[in-house]
Amino acid sequence: MERKVVGSSMIGSIGYDSTNGTLEVEFKKGGSIWQYYDVPEHIWNDFEYTASHGKYFLANIKKQYREARIG
What we know:
- By secondary structure, this protein is α+β, with helices and mostly antiparallel strands.
- It has one domain.
- Helices cover 24% and strands 31% of the residues.
- The chain has two helices and five strands; from the N terminus they run E-E-E-E-H-H-E.
- The chain has helices spanning 41-49, 53-60, and strands spanning 4-5, 11-17, 22-27, 33-36, 67-69.
- Strands 1-2-3-4-5 form a five-stranded antiparallel β-sheet, with helices on one face.
- Strand 1 and strand 2 form a beta hairpin.
- The protein is globular and about 25 Å long.
- The two termini are 13 Å apart.
């Protein structure tokens, strides 16, 4: 999945596959990559353009969707 770099102290890059609602997040600490499944496109749109990716992630994505570490 293609990801774009974001200006966050917590998150390095983010990506989204609209065909299956998969959101991918690369974290700066440890460089781990996680996928979140069945994420609605409006959540991605808000996440992509939020002023604080870390705060948005913690409030609206973490523990809200099925997830798996892929890297």
